[in-house]
Amino acid sequence: MNPEVEILEMARKFISGEDRSMGFVSSMEEFAVEKLSDSRMFEFLAEGLSLYRPWAGTPYWSEADMVQMLEDFVAEFGIAEEP
Q1: How far apart are CA 1 and CA 58, in angstroms?
Q2: Is 20 helix (H, G, I), strand (E, B) or coil?
Q3: Residues 32, 42: contact at Cβ < 8 Å?
Q4: Which 8-state DSSP code applies to residue 18?
Q5: Sign of the torsion formed by the C-alpha atoms of 17, 82, 49 and 64
Q6: Rounded to an integer, what distance in angstroms lies between the CA atom of residue 76 and that of residue 30?
Q7: pTM, entire model
Q8: What does the alpha-carbon distance between residue 49 and residue 46 come to, in Å, rounded to a whole number?
């Protein structure tokens, strides 16, 4: 699977509520840094992924903030899901 499709699947997994843990978001961030660091996708995701702390309040990102950002990400970069 190519990295663009994989990160979109990860975003959809978070949006659906299947996994909204810090560990999962950390794995998304590591994946983005490793596989997408020179792309527009990375630029779109970098701030939100690094600031996700659902319990911490401002300036960190809440779960709702992340859902909104990832919905926008999927709308912007959404490649059709693989069958």
Answers
A1: 36
A2: coil
A3: yes
A4: S
A5: negative
A6: 21
A7: 0.88
A8: 5
Residue of 35, 29, 40 lying closest to 2 (CA atoms) = 35
The reply to whether omega before 59 is within 30° of 0 (cis) is yes
pLDDT-derived band at 57, boundaries 50, 70, 90: confident
Neighbours of 34 (CB within 10 A): 9
Confidence of residue 82 (pLDDT cuts 50, 70, 90): very low
| Contact residues for 43 (Cβ-Cβ < 8 A; gap 6+) | none
Q: Which residue carries 């960190």 as its tokens?
A: 60
Token couple for 60: 């960190």
The answer to whether residues 22 and 52 touch, using CB atoms and an 8 Å cutoff, is yes
Show contacts of 47-54: CB within 8 Å, 24+ apart.
Answer: 49/25, 52/22, 52/25, 53/22, 54/20, 54/22
